[in-house]
Amino acid sequence: MKLAPGQLTLAQLAEIAAGTTLELSDWSAVDASAALVAAAAAGDAPVYGVNTGFGKLASTRIAKDQLAALQLNLIRSHAVGVGAPMSPEVMRLMLATKAGSLARGFSGVRREVVQALLDAFNAGFIPYVPAQGSVGASGDLAPLAHMTLALMGEGEALVDGRRVPARDELARLGLTPLTLAAKEGLALINGTQASTALALHALLRFEGLFATALASGAMTLDAARGSDGPFDARIHAVRGQPGQIEVAGVYRELLAGSAIRASHREGDERVQDPYCLRCQPQVMGAALDQARHAAQVLLREANAVTDNPLVFEDTMISGGNFHAEPVAFAADNLALAIAEVGAIAERRIAMLIDPGISRLPPFLTADAGLHSGFMIAHVTAAALASENKSLAHPASVDSLPTSANQEDHVSMATFAARRLHAMLDNTAHIVAIELLAAAQGIDFLRPLQSSAAVEALHARLRQDCASMPADHYLAPDIERAAALVQSGALRAPDAARPPAF
Q1: What is the mean pLDDT of residues 485-497?
Q2: Shared domain check, 415 and 377
Q3: Catalytic residue at 275?
Q4: Helix and strand element counts for the chain (H, E)
Q5: Domain count of the fold of the chain
Q6: Phi/psi at 321 (nearest 5 deg)?
């Protein structure tokens, strides 16, 4: 893939997360800004990050013969992260977006630095970067320092889930350890690439999960013999919310031709379905709109220049582009959308196991009492939905001053983005339980057939997860169903084109 700095698309970022190759053909902007930094380093005027200390120590001048040591010490001192490592997908996004940002030519690094990032990416080198330790301002300092230290051969790399010395892995891949010049360490760790990569990966994961949750909701509607009237296009047109309009159309396509629906079109005594069925376009459409807004913000950030100071033509200016508030807000909004997708799915499970509402056997088992059916599977879904509520609390409203109050307002964007992955795991399991429950409900309505799309979904699920006419060990079925959800195998793409973020 040709790396066009500042012009990456979401589709390209998805390729980057999965693994591809990157190359940069135009180095003119990089060379021009590097020359300006080299001149500043050779001069006598104080320039932040070039010949001064950092943060609260910005007034401390550094001798010319110590400028390279200054950058090395910066990386060593800032590599203080803790916790589990970033995933390979996140690390690929970090390497690529950092390379793209530096290649725009406002950071003052030599082309060797950008090339080192690209070479590492193309070779499959994955730095070992602990996920905790950034407050999302002054840049994602600790995560990016760990990434840089690995590129220098002093840190660690991640190989098949194991921590290995970075120098050994660089040698195995034929890569030369990176050596830093003036300002380059600061440029590498000053930026939002860690929080942005975490949030982008969550966004990419959510897209498939969202499409699957639409399909599971359609299956549940038919299992409960609900009405498709609330999906009538005229209802949604008069409100005008774009996500709602699009989602209602997806439900209509998913349910088209259902013999189950046709069987109760006449004589159904229920006037209106519960909200968890009837209001799916309104809830899921709102989640879609939030996700699309977050996608716009994160795409801009992935292409942005977010280090400090920045190099402009014949001057360097200190600013605050490293403050990740846009990422924090986007991640918080994504958290709300993810939580609500799981919350309404949990309500649909609760509805299915309640015979007074679903008109199906209690707990979806034919011999309730002797068998408990989906009673406790719903409890698991409720536990996960409740956990998501706590995780959805906005991270962006929190701030703790750091660096002796020099950095006195921070975004907490890195945690805001990191917690999305736990929420996605929870929601994937909720949707998996709903699919199992809805498929069981469909089984009780045989010989009636649902729509072609829902029947295809049912058949694919049954390949891995058998029906449960009597109680059996259900946890493995939930795990298998969750794996199908995470892989996108249950999106029913042939019936309705899943909405894109």
Answers
A1: 80
A2: yes
A3: no
A4: 20, 6
A5: 2
A6: -65, -15
